[in-house]
Design brief:
Protein name: TerB family tellurite resistance protein
Largest sheet: none
Mean pLDDT: 92
Order of helices and strands: HHHHHHH
Helix content: 55-70%
Number of strands: 0
Number of domains: 1
Number of helices: 7
Shape: globular
């Protein structure tokens, strides 16, 4: 999936990153590598300086503004990426999960859709872990 084929507007790309910043902040552990990652992502998405500043500012904001996306495809893509990002450390915390469900509700996405995405991510993690085990077959 190419992000630029799904998120087509500056506003959608900016909101995508702002939402992910707030998700990253949910656990309370913010390190500089996360901030650097999002700065690079904003540049990679070719966001304007104004949008990059908005993403940067979101690290210090307490309340996330409403995320606006063009359509359900963009909303679901945000949720997919958010759930995958939450699982990157093999730990999808209750705080992260609550955040995802709250945002999904705000975006008018059903719990059933979120549950399907969660199952897809979980299946992907299992698949990846099985691949890692294959590396030890001959050892």
């Amino acid at each position: 999936m190419n992000i630029n084929e799904i998120l087509k507007t500056e506003e959608s790309k900016k909101n995508f990153l702002i939402g992910l910043v707030f998700l990253a902040k949910v656990d309370g552990n913010i390190d500089e590598t996360e901030k650097y990652f999002f700065l690079n992502a904003a540049e990679g998405l070719q966001l304007s300086e104004e949008s990059q500043n908005a993403v940067n500012l979101s690290w210090s904001q307490e309340i996330m503004s409403e995320l606006k996306f063009e359509n359900n495809r963009e909303k679901l893509f945000f949720l997919m990426q958010g759930i995958q990002l939450s699982n990157i450390d093999n730990s999808y915390s209750d705080k992260e999960r609550s955040f995802i469900y709250k945002v999904a509700s705000d975006l008018a996405i059903s719990n059933e859709s979120v549950e399907r995405i969660e199952a897809w991510v979980e299946e992907g993690i299992k698949w990846q872990n099985e691949g890692i085990k294959l590396l030890d077959l001959e050892g």
